[in-house]
Amino acid sequence: MTTRSENSNIPNSTCQTIPQPKPTIHLPPLELSFFGIEQDDDYLEEWEYYFDRGDMVSGLAVVWINERTRDYVVAWACKRNFLFMFKKGDEAWRKNLQGTKCKDVAFKDNKLYVFTLDNYIKILDFSGDFPRESLENPYLNHRFTFEMARTESIWKRRLLVTNKGEVMVIQSSKVCKEKYVFQIFKMDFESGKWERVDSLGDEMLIFGHGVTVRTSVDDGGSIFFVGDDLWLDQKHCGVFHLATSTVTWSEQIGDAYSEIPRWFFPGYA
Q1: Could you state, in order of their start, the residue ranges of all structural domains in the chain?
Q2: Rg of the chain (C-alpha set)
Q3: How does pLDDT run across 178-187, given as a tens digit for each residue?
Q4: Domain KIB1-4 beta-propeller, which positions (predicted)?
Q5: Nearest-angstrom CA–CA distance, 93 and 11
């Protein structure tokens, strides 16, 4: 199970808690040493790594839970510069990849995939006692790029790892007037180039959560999205079908659309 917040309020007082039906996950307080130093115009390099308690109310925060073992990993990027991590059994938050500007993260098989603001992918290995940056990273020297048409505009770009373990990049785009689509890319390991993916088979992607779930039919795959995932000022949720590049919108109930909360119950293979 994956829970994600793009504008998360991570409490910094006595205890941090991510509510689950049962049991509750209690996270330790953030140490004062994480809050950096006071601003000093003579030390601009140090100011780059400074943040105060006011910065705790925003950022990228996600939690992955193994529903069978109840193991979990929490990752939180403050000001996109600091990546904090906590996994079951840890006694305190860990800092890693200092100076890396984080755009998105995804977790699969004890590996945390970090998508940077300059469109590179870094990998942190959680299989040992301490998370370490993996040297076996086929994406490290292959920046995500693609040829964009003149009329095309990119809205959001995210990272995902499928059930099969394939690492992909997905983006929502406006390809022409009033035509909005999702585009998926994966890297060709022989050429090192990123290529378009036209099908996810029998999997549905949960946009912004970095995961896919299996569906009952192999129709080329689909993408579930909410709010402004597809484009600016979009208020409703829907499903984007990759095979036809069409959207099935949520059912309207009165004057409102059924949006949130959303629940997914993937079957076990």
Answers
A1: 2-133, 153-257
A2: 19
A3: 788 889 999 9
A4: 24-240
A5: 13
